[in-house]
Amino acid sequence: MGQMVKNLVHQQYRLAVLMSSGQGRESGEGSSRSVSAPADHQQPPQLSRYESQKRRDWNTFGQYLKNQRPPVAMSQCNYNHVLDFLRYLDQFGKTKVHLQGCVFFGQPEPPGPCACPLRQAWGSLDALIGRLRAAYEENGGLPETNPFASGAIRLYLRDVRGSQAKARGIPYKKKKKKRNQMKATDETTNFQMQSA
Ligand SMILES: [Zn+2]
């Protein structure tokens, strides 16, 4: 059963990789830096893993908005853009989410392959939203207009969690943190927190 957390952690890692590579595609650090306005005070030389991931996520999201037709300014961004972004990320997902008709529906560890789609795991999305929500305000956004804090996002994540729990046979209520603490402290704290 530690498997589940391991999977989630793995997902997060994949997402991190995905995000950084998404950013790299667009040509370099300079361009991504222009996304966030206020030059943050004194960067410590070594960002924590959480901090650097948050920065990558923020840049990726900014890039995503820029790539819209027409481009969306951060100030115009609302929760619909965020929802679209989350759905867009699903195509890079690595988590098998069984469809209703699949014989493995509801089985955490299916004995064989199937044709069901790969998605972003709920835990990855939840952690991502937490980071983006923080980044938005750190980059000058007002809490009142924070699109990542919208109730619509919370509902969406709750739906994803519910449907993935059913499809994958995973009860998200059970926290498996203790057994995996050695490996995964960073990620598990990230993804566990906002869920209650
Ligand atoms: Zn399936």
UniProtKB/TrEMBL annotation:
Composition skew (Basic residues), residue ranges: 171-181
Keyword Nucleus attributed: yes
InterPro entries in UniProt: ALOG, ALOG_dom
Domain called ALOG: residue spans: 49-176
GO molecular function: DNA binding
Pfam families found in the cross-reference section: ALOG_dom (PF04852)
Keyword field: Developmental protein, DNA-binding, Nucleus, Transcription, Transcription regulation
Coiled coil: none
Bias type Low complexity, positions: 21-36
Region described as Disordered: spans on this chain: 21-53, 168-196
Comp. bias intervals (Polar residues): 187-196
One cellular-component annotation, GO: nucleus
Record-stated family: Belongs to the plant homeotic and developmental regulators ALOG protein family.
Protein name: ALOG domain-containing protein
Originating species: Ilex paraguariensis (yerba mate)
